[in-house]
Amino acid sequence: MLNENDDANIANTDIVYKLSKQTFSSLSFGEKIRITTDGRPTPKLDNLKSTIKKSGVIRTFNPENYGKYPWMCGSLHFQKLFCWPCILFSDKTSAWNSFNKGYSDLNNLHTAVQRHSSSESHLLAWLKLKSFSSTRMDTSLSKAQELAISKHNEKVKNNREVLKRLIATVCLLGKQEIGFRGHDESSSSCNRGNYIEMIHTIAEFDEKLYNHLENATVFTGLSSNIQNDLIQCIGDTISIEIKNRIIEATFVAISMDESSDVSNFSQLSVVFRYIHKNHCAETFIGFFDVSADRTANAISKLAVDILKEFGCLEKLIAQTYDGAAVMSGHLNGVQAKLKNEVPEALFIHCYSHRLNLVLSQSVSYIKQCKIFFSTLNGLVAFFSTSTKRTNLLDTVVKKRLPKAAPTRWSYSARLVETVFEHYEDLISLFEHILDDDANNWDQITLRESVGYLATLKDFEFVFLLRLFFEVFPHTEITFNVLQNKQTDIPACKNQIETLKCFLNNTRCNFFEHLWKYSCENRKVDTVRRKRRRNHDDDELKDSYRKLFFEVVDCLIVQINDRFQDLKELNFLQLAEQSKFEEFARCFPDNLLNDLKLVYPKHFDFVRLKSELNVLYKTKILKSNKISEHLEELGQDEYNIIMPEVYKLYSLIMTIPSTSASFERSVPALKRIKTYVRNTMGEDRLSSLGLMSIEKNILFSLKQKEDFYNHVIAKFCERNRRMEFNFK
Predict the structure, then answer these.
(1) Fewer CB within a 10 Å sphere, N or C end of the chain?
(2) Confidence class of residue 84 from pLDDT cuts 50, 70 and 90?
């Protein structure tokens, strides 16, 4: 038995023996560096011998084997062979790294070496040794270098803490839709903008931020470029999270909506609809400037590029758009071109788009209609911007005008109805303003009153007001039926046919009544108002007949195009709970076949039929709302028992026609429209939009420990004059 002195002496001369007493992982970093720098021991092993049984020949170990196998090492004490990488780094025990065994069978050395060389544990250990050896020179530093790294990392830590405060400020301003910049951001200004003022306010109570602002020379974090970079990095981080959610979804629908700012720059907002954690999600993707090219080719290419970027082109099952003619045209519109790319992408009317809004947008290319709706909107703005005017409205008209968005044609039936029913009162109101003492009203009120009085008495305005008063109540009824009967496709189709019948009947029979009403009931001089001195009455009437047909035909085309794929949605009745008892008695094979025709590649239809039969007979769904059925199926693990039924409900809830409303949140499109009106034209619009519209996603990301690290990593991808990366 070895005493302590002998043991120490052997350990000093035989590193393998030393490692048998103390594992490599337990050694200090300095000792590890020394051992790996010294390299593997390759002693002569005179006592390592093997006898060939048949011949009695004794084999001895040839040290040249060390040269053949760069991983092989030996131990004088054990008189055996070992694997140097495996001794140091392998977690798996074998003869080559077991100090109780070692390798000593020289008769089978070649075979054993080949077998060990190709083992996964050996390769991993060798890679670890190689990695350790390549980095040891970088980490085996002098005390001065270690101190320099320590100081650098401490500075980086402080810099990153400061940057976190800047990121948090950007998140707050973006989420709350508060402007960033100030008109005068110089140090002498008393109002340098919300971003800079908020940073300085935080610094009053935060020593790290205060010291940074006081001492920083190359990076304060207050410049507009830094603000924009942080906005972009946060937006990118949100986009990555959205992509991850969409990757998990089975189906995706796309909604595209166009908005224009006061400079007439067209911004296209894009929303994806999909299922996330058993709930239907409508997620804003971004704003895209389409001012340069608003053709169907350009917009459809943009849509395809976005779908490919998010990896969901093959998942697309539906598409919906606003009333822009270039988007919804049956032959040349975006929907037709996108359907050529993805045949299963049905064109669906989205109930986030109110039907009257869509129809008013669709006739916007008709100049007279655009002027008419602009006038309605102007009337609302005229009264809403002055309490004195509002008080007069309450006194004379005794009815306030429904509020409408100033930069969108959000003209509901209520607005048209209110102006029509209180037409005479509105004329009396403007006449009262103009007949009143001029000193009682400001110049703007007087000037605009002259214009509105003339417009209200204009024959063209009266003509269109009566026309839309006739049409909009019927389209509003249709909208309400479609909302409340989403899965009852026969009822929806009947209502659409009723509306189309009404419009066709209006086209054939209503003009003469409309002309007579406009001429006689309002007592407007048509020739004088139109200032067409060279036209006789018949020619003037023909021009209005042409306008009438143009408007009504546009509405009919819109209804036909927008609901052209409604017949494809018969299968939605498979989820109509009120019909479950009927379906339990007689399975609706025709509806299942409809589903197979529209979406043939997404389902195992044999299994789906069996699962639906069970669903109809067991009454496992408790809620009366289809929007809650998916949650029930997911929470109770029915999605595992009946995966095809769960997939069917996921499909149905992804289709925008079933989007009526979300009890837990405002639909994404409504929030987008509000946001665009406030911030159109600002830099980084999409990233700011993501922070504002998808604030729930931003909130969930901020709860994660690595959120700030992800944003900082994005921020550091560009060249920075300040250190933010650890060594």
Answers:
(1) N
(2) very high
